[in-house]
Amino acid sequence: MRLNKLELRNYRNYQELILEFPNRLNVFLGENAQGKTNLLESIYVLALTRSHRTSSEQELIGWQDDFAQIKGRIERGTSELELELLLTKKGRKSKVNHIEQKKLSSYIGQLNVILFAPEDLSLVKGSPQMRRRFIDMELGQINPVYLYDLAQYQQTLKQRNLYLKQLSEKKQTDEIYLDILTEQLVDFGSKVLANRLQFVKKLEHWSNDLHGKITNQKEELAIEYDASLPLESETVEEIRNVFMSELQRNRKREIFKGNTFLGPHRDDLIFKVNQQNVQTYGSQGQQRTTALSVKLAEIDLMKEETGEYPILLLDDVMSELDDSRQIHLLETIENKVQTFLTTTTLNHVKGKMTVHPDIFYVHQGQIERKET
C-alpha cells in the first residue's frame, strides 16, 4: 500500500497543497510549529476520518474557512484508488473513487496507517484510556465493522448511564427500559470484547518476536487483556452470558451509583517483561522498548490481516529514541513500508538506511522538495 499523491485545501495552515511521493521514505524537515505534524495528521485523517490530536473537526479547518478538503491517490496491489474527505461545520463526507460512502465501515480500511508519535512511548505507562484508544484505532482499520459495534456500544452506554442516574435520583422508577438498554449494551459489548481478545493475542505474537530482537533475546514480552469481567472464553456467546450475569448481579449497586461499572469501557492492557509487570516495575528503558515493540508489531499484524503493509507515520519520534532503538526501528521498516517522517534534523536518518529519502523542507505552511 502506498500514498502516491496528497492534496490539501484549507487544512489547518495549508491553504492549498499538492504533493507527490514517488519513493518509499519521505522526510519532512523543518523547525517546530511550521506544519510538519499537520501534514502527517492530514494523512491520518484521510485514513480514519478523524484526528489523533483533537475531537473537534473545526480545528482542522483553516482559520476563516468554511471547509477543509483532503484528497489522496493510493496504490493497493495493482490498482489505484482516489480517496476524498470533506470537512465542514455540519460534518464530514467521504468518497472512494468519487462515490460518497454513507457508512464509515465502507470507507475506513481503504488506506491503513500506523502513527508513531512521542506520546506513544507513554503507551505502557500512560492511562488505560490511552491503551483502549490504541486498540480501537488499530483494530478499527483491520475490521471496520468493529468500529460500528464500538460506536453502538458507546451510544448505548451513554443512554444507560443517563437512565441509571435518573433511577438513582428517583426521577424514574420503571426498570423495564433499563432491561432493554442492558440487552443492547451486552449485545454490542460482547462483539467488541471478542474482537479485542483476538486482536491482543495476535499483537502479543508479533510484539514478542520484535521485543526479543531489540533486546538480543534477553527479554520476553507478554500482553494480557485486563477485562473488568471474569472472562474465560473468547466466543461472543460465552462473553455475552458472563456480561449479562455480571450486570444483573451488580444492578442495585449501579442504580445506587448511577453508573455502569463493567464492560469494555473499563478494560485495560497489562504488559509483562520476563513475567514481571513492566508498567509497575519496569525501567523507563524497558517501558520504551515495550512501546516500540508494540507499535512496530502493528506493521506485520496489519499485513497478516489485510494482505498489505500499512503506511507508517513517524512524527518526530526519532529524537525520543536512542541510537540502538533508532536502528531497530529503521531496520524494521526498510524496504517494507512507505514511511513519512518528520524531524528537525537529518542526523537520525542519514547513514542508517540504504533507502534514499525524499526530503521536503517545511516552513510556515510552505513545502519545498530538496535535492540531497
Determine Rg (CA atoms, Å): 22 Å
Class inferred from helices and paired strands: alpha/beta
Number of helices: 10
Q: What is the highest CATH level, the class of the largest domain?
A: Mainly Alpha
Share in β-strands: 15-25%
According to CATH, the fold-level topology of the largest domain is Glutathione S-transferase Yfyf (Class Pi), Chain A, domain 2
**CATH H-tier superfamily of the largest domain:** RecF/RecN/SMC, N-terminal domain
Summed over residues and divided by their number, the pLDDT gives a mean of 91
Unreliable residue runs: none
What's the arrangement of strands in the largest beta sheet? Answer: 2-1-4-5-6-7
Q: Mind telling me which CATH architecture of the largest domain this is? A: Up-down Bundle
Estimate the global geometry from the Cα principal axes.
globular
Alpha-carbon distance between the two ends: 25 Å
Per DSSP E runs of 2 or more residues, the count of β-strands stands at: 15
Helix share bin: 40-55%
H/E element string? EEEHEEEEHEHHHEHHEEHHEHEEE
Instruction: Work out the count of structural domains.
Output: 2
How do the helices and strands line up, and which of them pair or pack?
Blueprint: E1 2-11, E2 14-20, E3 25-29, H1 36-48, E4 67-76, E5 79-88, E6 91-96, E7 99-100, H2 104-107, E8 113-116, H3 128-142, H4 144-168, H5 176-214, E9 221-226, H6 236-249, H7 251-257, E10 268-273, E11 276-277, H8 278-281, H9 284-306, E12 311-315, H10 323-333, E13 339-343, E14 358-363, E15 366-370
Parallel strand pairs: 3-13, 3-14, 8-12, 12-13
Antiparallel strand pairs: 1-2, 1-4, 4-5, 5-6, 6-7, 9-10, 10-11, 14-15
Helix pairs in contact: 3-4, 4-5, 4-7, 5-6, 5-9, 9-10
